[in-house]
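Record 1 of the preview.
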Amino acid sequence: MIINCIIVEDEPLALKRIQEYVGQVSYLNLIASFSNGYEAVGFLKSQEVDLLFLDVEMDGFTGIELLEALSHKPEVIITTAYDKYALKGFELNVTDYLLKPFAFDRFLRAVERVYDILSKARASDRDYLFVKTEYRLERVAFNEIFFISGMGDYRCIQTTSKKILTLQPFAELELALPKHVFCRVHKSYIVSVPHIQSIERQRIRIGKELIPISEQYKERFYRLVEPGNGQP
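->
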């Protein structure tokens, strides 16, 4: 899934930093940057945008005024040096609020929240993906996928009826799958949470397959399957 985004920021150094951060996230597509709110409002009213990185204190037209001028808002991440706008921002349903200066890992957490929100919304409209197999694209329904495993240069998609081999990398497959349904649990495995039969001793059972849960991925996995309850 690709997220089309714009940046509204009047500080050149801050703008450059956010552009660099955006460039490090494979699923973000920066389509425009603006140094003032007036130009951004016109663009947002004529173009479809998924995500807006928005400064607040700008000359002439503030970020808050920009949000109030929009009847249809994209997901919004506020980027500002001032915490006094946090309450107003969340009253306007912003997704996250980043206080400058912020590190890349904090930026990434905010972006991943947006990804989760948009993937759930888009998954409700689309319930399948196309997989590259040999010389064709094969349509695979999400609810038919048990898990995806690594087999050398190939990824093996185990479905309810067959195995499908593809050279598509795990990262590409992850982007195409809804994050509230599928989860990476190991460098060699993505699992479908609704198809999990049991979890015991850091292993997942799906059918006859026992799938390991690695340290790198276990925190997000347990948050997904048992929100607020932690590990078994």
